[in-house]
Amino acid sequence: MNTDVPKARLSSFYLAYYAALGAFTPYWSLYLQARGQEATAISVLMSLWYGTRIVAPSAWGWLAGRSAQPIRWLHLGCGLTVLSFLAFFLPLSFAGLFGAMVVFCFFYNAVMPQFEAITLSHLPGRSEQYGAIRVWGSIGFIAVVALLGVIFDHLAVVHLPWLMLPLFLALGASSLGNRYGPGHAPAAAGGGDDPGLRAVLRRREVVAFLLMALLTQISFGPLYTFFSLYLQEHGYRASSLGLYWALGVAVEIVVFFFAARLLSRWDARTVLLAALASVALRWTVTALLPERPWVIALAQLTHALNFAAFYAACMLYMARFFPGRLAGHGQGVFYGFSSGLGGVLGALIAGQAWRLGGGQAAFLVAAVFAAAALVLAWLGLPAARAARAG
After folding, report:
1. Are 254 and 304 in contact (CB under 8 A)?
2. What's the gap between Cα 251 and its chain centre?
3. Bigger pLDDT: 118 or 228?
4. With the CA atoms of 15, 122, 62 and 98 taken in that order, what torsion angle do they form, in degrees rounded to the nearest 10?
């Protein structure tokens, strides 16, 4: 049996997906402003990105998991992502934009958890290779962020959908070239020999893992919501803001390339504990020493640990906790619970902390959540070492 991993095909999906996200995350609010939306309306529309993450991954994973041909759900999700995105070429009011955002964000958020399951199905016994595939998503993200920053010096941001559409078409094309690997167990009547999803979710270590991921995502709330504003308040020029954002993404690329060696040398629990400790330290120094550029730069460099290494280790746990046909279900729960619910709560909690005590309070609260995630991982997670290929 040929056990070669189709790294190029798998990487192409991450490249297209996160390249589009590199256009959406930094620039979509500017696009909405160019469409005549005010700050309150923009905040409501952007919150739908996180809100749909609560429902979409689990719903899509459930549908794919019950299908005899789950790959068709990936094709359908990518196709509907493209079709729903076309709505933004229409002259929509706030109500129209709200509806378009709900549908578009639902399908865009739905497909990645299923594709994560597809990737892991190609890596039975060698999940440490995940990082070398996922890294192409980071490369796509940072390339598009940088390129569009230059383009929008000469082109109005209202043209953003035209620049994003080719990326979504590439995503659809990549989905057609991918399929499940040998580690995938198709759905069967009676559920097969795998434990049911509910039984897995009741396990103590799985509960601890999901709560740890939730707390970690909440701690990132101030970064995603207020980091640029926080730096501006402390005298940083606008040209510096993009540099600090790019620095964080650039170092995660390096870690993803070396994730296999990292997880072969240290077990996933050790990597997670180191990552979570770095998260708590990052938010603490960001809160207390924002006026020192070299401190902020070093804090951004820890993104290598507290995002890239953290995420690669989480995927190793996901492969362990949700094997075979449960992979899609598990990815849906993981995305919905951490990125979805955690993203919404992180933004709301950061907003309240900012209102009460400014940026310093918001980042100190974030450090408390990261410390709580560290304690939970220390007490609740078993060791999980990557299997060595061969």
Report:
1. yes
2. 16
3. 118
4. 0
